[in-house]
User: What shape does this take?
Amino acid sequence: MDLTAFRSSLDGPEPPVATGPLRALWYEAKGDWRRAHEIVQDDNGPEAAWVHAYLHRVEGDLSNARYWYGQAEKPASKVPLQEEWAAIVKALLAGA
Assistant: This one.
């Protein structure tokens, strides 16, 4: 699967992937921030921490986002949110 296919799946009723971080990004893109956050908040992996950081950035909680970027060992992002979302999706799909 690539970014275009992942974006196209947003028209469907269920995420096309099983991994938590990608599912979280799918739900966030569908407007369900709360469900996305629930998926990653108890996952201790670095991918989940990266998505967790992004979600707090979406929320506007930049100090919490910085904490999660640190947990993911990623620099705090300053690019537009949609650009970051796409970059994370691409990276996670490449690693899947």
